[in-house]
Amino acid sequence: MTNDPREFLLNVFRAAVKEAQPKLCLPQFLPDSPKGKIVVIGAGKASAAMAAVAEDHYASEISGLVITRYGYAVDCQNIEIVEAGHPIPNIDGHNATLRILENLATLSEDDLVLCLLSGGGSSLLTLPTEGLSLEDKQHINEILIRSGAAVSEINIIRKHLSQVKGGRLAQVCMPANLVTLVISDVVGDDLSAIASGPTVPDPSTFADAIAVVNKYDLELPTSAMKILNEGLHETLKPGNEIFDKNRIEIVANGKNSLDAAAKVAEAAGIEPIILNDYFDGEARDIGQKIAGVAIAHKYQAPCVLLSGGELTVNVKGSGKGGPNTEFLIALAMELNGAEGVFAIACDTDGTDGSGDNAGAMIAPDTLSRARKLGLDPTDTLIRNDAYSFFDILDDLVISGPTHTNVNDFRAIMIAS
Question: Which among 305, 399, 382 has a CA at the least distance from the CA of 343?
């Protein structure tokens, strides 16, 4: 068994990220070469790394364009990689989306469109619907990410304010064969929610989008509400013949990564207990709840509680941080220095909210060290400034871009 809880927790996080690397998970899902050409499209934090794997795989002619977040580019020879704004869409993503549509304009039945999607694609693949400006879309995204709404709820609104989301991009790919390969960052692996489902059927409606607006009392621009209330151009629904020839595969998800982390724990002589891969909700609420679960498992020490999912933050303060660091502060407060309990919480894409960190770590002495430095965890949560809290403690986890994205990763080690 390891004598260094922090190094152990970093190792299980690294294993989770490695399991979702495109070079490991993607090749077995790549389709056979077609009679015609291969056009690669896509968007997301993993899309550039996925494109590089696809380019290495095919000997035949391949071309295309994918959009990834700034800093997440990977070198390709024939597939163009465009970096754009995330989580707020920008003109680079908008223009790149238009160019993707241009690349799909002259396809035949012999051609193959390979669509590579991952988390982050909703912001990167951006083309507002008629009557909505890019500035409107940017403002809407700012409202949505601060609302505390689940990603699946946010994407219902996004899909109904877009020309390419909600299956609409699949229509542009006709008459070519379309294969969509996905690295999932959505709880439950809902294909219609991942990157807002540009090439898959969308069961949600304009009425569902309005319900989300009302649920969170969102003040969207007048132009957006007009479009949602009119409900004139619905997304493409299950059963539409456009999807008859399409193939869709999830190549990596949070469950796979938790299983990989569990194997590392077993090898270290620590019993892994996978709670689930689908936790969602307000980060600080989940932190409080999981603290109780950790205490209840102290009799099983040494063990590690593993979980995934996608937590949210209802942002009211002006600080810096994200759901993983807010989860950890709430967890530490509820544990109140419980002996032998250590934890890590990180986003597998390498970025937690608005910081440059993947997440952070806590130990039994986290709160006592914080108080000595004049840090107030309650005030920190009020100000949504968890990044600064852990930065001062020197407990941030900074991984840099990981080139994948399978949700949040959490591990709570209970030492003997």
Answer: 305
Helix (H, G, I), strand (E, B) or coil at 135: helix
Q: Are 133 and 159 in contact (CB under 8 A)?
A: no
How many Cβ atoms are within 10 Å of 280's Cβ, its own excluded? 19
Angstrom distance (rounded) from CA 280 to CA 248: 25
Q: Are 58 and 33 in contact (CB under 8 A)?
A: yes
Which architecture characterizes domain 5-16+254-414 according to CATH? 3-Layer(aba) Sandwich (3.40)
Query: Average pLDDT in the 14-18 region?
Result: 98
Residue 341 has pLDDT above 60, yes or no: yes
Residue type, 305: L
Token output for 350: 């390498």
C-alpha to C-alpha distance for 309 and 311, rounded to whole angstroms: 7
**Type of residue numbered 250:** I
Q: Lay out the sheet containing 62-69: strands in order across.
A: 79-84, 62-69, 38-43, 112-118, 177-183, 247-252
Q: Provide the residue ranges of all domains of the chain, joining segments of one domain with +.
A: 5-16+254-414, 21-252
* Residue 124 phi, psi (nearest 5): -80, -40
DSSP state, residue 355: S
Model confidence at 150, in pLDDT bands (50, 70, 90)?
confident
Collapse the DSSP code of 106 into the 3-class scheme (helix H, G, I; strand E, B; otherwise coil) and give the result: coil
- Residue 206 is encoded by which pair of tokens? 């304009």
Q: Give the C-alpha separation, 214 to 220, whole Å.
A: 11
The pLDDT value given to residue 2: 60
* Amino acid identity at 165: K
Question: Does residue 302 have a cis bond before it (omega within 30 degrees)?
Answer: yes
Q: Is the pLDDT of residue 1 over 80?
A: no
How large a percentage of the chain has pLDDT more than 90?
95
Distance (Å, rounded) from C-alpha 55 to C-alpha 57? 5
Distance of CA 340 to the CA centre of its chain: 31
- Reference 265, options 274, 275, 253, 255; nearest CA is 274
Q: How far apart are CA 43 and CA 401, in angstroms?
A: 15
Residue written as token pair 């920190």: 380
Under 8 Å between Cβ of 67 and 99: no
Rounded distance between C-alpha atoms, residue 416 and residue 405, angstroms: 33
Contact 337, 310 (CB under 8 A): no
Superfamily of domain 21-252 in CATH is Glycerate kinase, MOFRL-like N-terminal domain (3.40.50.10180)
